[in-house]
Write a structure and sequence with these properties.
Number of strands: 13
Pfam families: Epimerase
Shape: globular
CATH superfamily of the largest domain: NAD(P)-binding Rossmann-like Domain
InterPro entries: Epimerase_deHydtase, NAD(P)-bd_dom_sf
Number of domains: 2
Protein name: Nucleoside-diphosphate-sugar epimerase
Structural class: alpha/beta
Number of helices: 9
Largest sheet: 5 strands, parallel
Domain NAD-dependent epimerase/dehydratase: 3-209
Family: Belongs to the NAD(P)-dependent epimerase/dehydratase family.
């Protein structure tokens, strides 16, 4: 099976490549210098003759204020999907996000819930999803909406890293407001394994990839202290407009087809500590 990965040098991509190698699954993971997804000719030239059967599209830009976010997430995804359709690639796996949901609607989201038109990054991912559903409707696609991924080596998403750094260095954890902002935290191994599950089982449709459990900021801080066996120290900071949103992804659809994440937040943090 010939597999193409975009975004292979990112946090999720690097970990996915390690797992594929461990399972002796071969893949291509060209850099953007070799295959630029914003240039359809570049994609066509790279795909030519390789007989790619599966594409795992992880390349994205999360800076919603930049033009590159639009170019990569919307134009790039369209170019890639269109090229894969022309090359008769059988399975397209797309890394989407919990940012597609309307945070102000409710707290627990399933795959048919209302989508957001406020978060620019989320909107760019929604457009990517729409492109896949339209162009790949007669082939197999897996749209995976990931909750907040964390793990060793992460460069984006500083919350978990900052908490761990402060605790290790015996510094208090800063809690902005009351610490009620709630997210569904997904350990990197579970994120990677969900992609491999989608690959092996030719998963078709849209799926939330999550633990289905919410953890607020204060609970997360307490868990970090517990895992690293440190005394709790908090520095509460008053802010005018506290983020009190709750975003938990219902993973029942994925569970019903046979995949369930293994790591709770505490178990994921314990594994992070073991790998340090």
């Amino acid at each position: 099976m010939a597999i193409l990965i975009t975004g292979g040098s990112g946090f999720l991509g690097e970990n996915l490549k390690i797992s594929l190698e461990q399972e002796q699954i071969e893949y291509f993971a060209p850099s953007s210098n070799v295959m630029n997804i914003t240039d359809e000719i570049s994609i066509k030239n790279y795909l030519s003759g390789k007989k790619i059967e599966v594409v795992i599209h992880l390349a994205a830009n999360s800076d919603h204020k930049s033009q590159e976010c639009l170019e990569t997430n919307v134009i790039g995804t369209f170019n890639l999907v269109n090229s894969c359709k022309n090359e008769q690639v059988k399975h397209f796996i797309f890394s989407s996000t919990n940012n597609v949901y309307d945070y102000h609607c409710k707290g627990i989201f399933n795959e048919i819930d209302k989508l957001s038109n406020m978060n620019h990054y989320g909107v760019s991912k929604i457009m990517g999803e729409y492109t896949i559903r339209e162009l790949y409707h007669d082939l197999t696609y897996s749209i995976l909406r990931f909750s907040d991924i964390y793990g060793n080596g992460q460069t984006q998403g500083n919350l978990m890293k900052n908490f761990i750094s402060n605790v290790i260095n015996d510094l208090p954890i800063n809690i902005y407001g009351s610490g009620v902002r709630t997210r569904d935290y997904l350990y990197i191994d579970d994120a990677v394994n969900s992609i491999i599950f989608a690959l092996k089982n030719k998963l078709h449709g849209i799926f939330n990839i999550s633990t289905g459990v919410g953890t607020n900021i204060l609970e997360l801080a307490k868990t970090v202290n517990l895992v690293f066996n440190k005394k709790e120290q908090y520095n509460y900071i008053n802010i005018a407009h506290e983020d009190k949103t709750c975003v938990i992804l219902d993973n029942n659809k994925l569970t019903k087809v046979g995949f369930k994440p293994k790591f709770t937040v505490q178990a994921g943090l314990e594994e992070m500590r073991r790998r340090m």
